[in-house]
Amino acid sequence: MGLEVITDEFISKLIKIKKSVENPRTRKKRESGNERATYTLYDEEGNRYDLYLRQNYYLGMSDDFSCGLSWLMTGGEYFTLIRYNGSSHIHFNKIERNRLSFICHIHKATKKYLDETGIADGFAEESSRYSTLEEALFCLIQDCNIEGLNINPMQGEFKL
Amino acid sequence: MSTICNIDDLQKILCASFCADIKVARKNEHLIRVETPFYFPDGDPYQIYLKEISTGGFKITDAGHTLMHLSYENDIDEFQKGTRGALLQQIQLETGMKEDDGEFYLESASNEIHINLFRFGQALTKIYDLTFLNRTRVENTFYEDLDRSIIKIVDEEKIIRDYIFKGMESAEDYPIDYYIKGKKEEPLYLFGIPNRDKARLTTIIIERLLRHNAKFESLIVFSDFDSVPKNDSKRLINVGGEIISSLDAKDDLSRKILKRVA
After folding, report:
1. ipTM of the complex
2. If exposure means fewest CB atoms within 10 Å of the residue's CB, which of A58, A132, B50, B145 is most exposed?
């Protein structure tokens, strides 16, 4: 299955379907300017996903972080379904021609952006639900129906 | 119908619009943020910052963001090796940009900062374009190049792509990239090998064909022989016939095909 199967309903289904983390103890890597971890997930229908966490460790860039969920297409390419970004940068929605200022924002894949800009996850909306990578991951786990990663942002259990 | 534009007005419009797109603000005690019209395709901007250099001038830096952005959907370790690594070095040479622990930066005198900001943006664009060389795309390109090479050597009517040898169970699970009609009774089965997985699959396919007494000769064409782990290529060579180490060996490919083709 490639891009031809993408519809908003399909994206929504992939986000909502229950997924389990296959490698919850994956090793984190700290090099090339960022600390990162990537988990492999499968849903009940056998679709494979990557859940990735990224935190910039450059001095003064603690607000530059991201976590996202991408679906592995049959051709071997990844399709980002949703991505939670930190507040280090603005975002510009090309179609609506609106600008999100320096605020945490969530990229969401849409059929409209795929068709009209070639980049499905070009649309983003601001969010005040999180301000750290850990909180963003907590939101992602809830929003995307993910099991197998136990974190509680209030207790600081998950640290990259 | 053409209109006569006023060059002075155009100059004013361009200057005003460029200025409007550039915004400078202090991000924190470490970094001065510069907003520019350079964007990644997903609508997030290139992150460009300035740091004053004690000896004068500025360090223009991405503060490590570019590689992090690329890492969402790419293995950034690959940007340090092979073709991508060589291209990255080439970009650095061309633009004067340097890299340190994932941070890309360019040092600039104060009076050249506008030129160097654009140069830096250009450099980051070139780095982003390296993502077009991702594994899937390179593999697709290999199959397209292989197909072009083969039809230059052999008439299309002598070729069957994705051929299925019917004389065994679940034959559809063991496709042969190319059936090429041979000089004798035996056809030539040609396989393209862009990676380790395909090397392993082809080993299985050829072994299965041999077990079912299929009569054929085989030719294995690697995208890059050295990029396939030794054990995998060894197993494939043991079961397969002749090999071509890469599509650069055009004459050898032509000779080895023509020797067998009707």
Report:
1. 0.92
2. B145
